[in-house]
Amino acid sequence: MTKQLLAINPTDVNSKTTQNFDNSQVCSADVAELINDIITQDKFKRSRWGILVQTLESGDMLYALEKDKYFLPASNVKLLTTAAALFKFGSEFRFKTPIYISGNFPHLKTLRLVGKGDPSLTTEKLQNLAKLLKLRGVTQIDHLIIEAENIDESGINPTWEWEDVHYNYATAVNDLILNENSVTLTLVPQKIGEPLKLEWSDPIAAEQWQVNHQAITGKKGTPYSIAIETKLGQPILNIKGELAIDSEPDQFGLAVVNPNAYFLETLKTILIREGIGVNSATINQLKKDSNDDKKMTELESENLDKLVTKVNQDSHNLFAESLLKLLANDRMNKSNLEGLNETLTQLGVNPISYQLKDGSGLSRQNLVTPEALVSTLRLMAKTPDAKTYQQSLAIGGVNGTLKNRFQGTPIQGIVQAKTGTLLGTSTLSGYLQPPNYPELVFSIMVNQSEVSLPELRQGIDDIIILLSQLKKC
Fold first, then answer.
1. Which of 117, 261, 270, 418, by CA, is between 20 and 30 Å from 280?
2. pTM for the whole thing?
3. Sites in the chain below the pLDDT cut of 50
4. What is the rounded CA–CA span in Å between residue 90 and residue 326?
């Protein structure tokens, strides 16, 4: 896996937890006392809990603690973002990137690609475009033009931690996204005492980084001490430390420094390799379509249901932020968050139950109540895309960020939920299907805790296991 350079993975941590499960059953009248026994353990005495548990169909409340108080939600924000996107656009929506041409084959005057914020565009799709042009006989393009609505915007949320924005979990969110705006750097041991070999997954993206490389190969058994440091606002990597000669190659996921330039240079390079000459290449502000331009084709993403699944199961920040941006595309002079708020209000979610700064949960300034998340989950269950939304969530013990939780217990396969992890914060919200009780919807949020993340997750998981034992009494 590609390493993410923080003490905490700001999306989610998928680690195994020890499950405390027995086969006893629990009456609903006893739930409150039993949950209180879990969250009032000495180790949690300085942790802040927010919990809401209801039946999905009737809305009967089984447990509530500070349900209308604000908490830091971490990646549980993605539940709101994906709900709004599905509710507004439907599961069959696709991002479309149009390609316009002017002039006559085989010598085109212009080829113009208009970025629409598709987070799934890859080098392979651009290669397919070049092959299509070659198949149609194109041999020369005078002007390659890449257009975006806001070419001067950084695409970086100002509320994100500056330490995050150099890495692949906090990449720029712009109109021209390619290969998820990320690149992988691999450090490979050489002979003892020699500098580590640097291998980049993409040479064009690599050229945007200035590297000060001082890391060396250590002898067998040398303790791991690799550190990569960045400078605020500068594309500089300082690499230090030692990697033992018998170690596996060490990978780090980094952000593309200038996504627009990376997109343009990549497409230009692909065209030239395909035997299509390019006289000039520029990035322009989006303009109205020219009468001389003809739409040749468009590049399409997968359906929205697939994109939403990537957001919720893999906790993918870039895809979540791209959906947030999409919600504002048809609202002139309104922010991304206004588009989200309007859509959630139409869905029926109380707008004062959350205060957001982004669509992924990476911001430490987001505030969400357990009530907002449970309300969203219940309301989405009444929409045409209810099944799509629920199936987009990770399944306990099966896949996504819950793959290694609840394995080998009767919980496996009956909880579908979204995880959230930041330093001192762990959250889990979703659906639970107890074998002997109506389906539940829940939100459990722990904030301001010095307890280790595995222990926080264990506390949350113990509550889920307890709820799974419910029976009517």
1. 117
2. 0.93
3. 1-9
4. 13
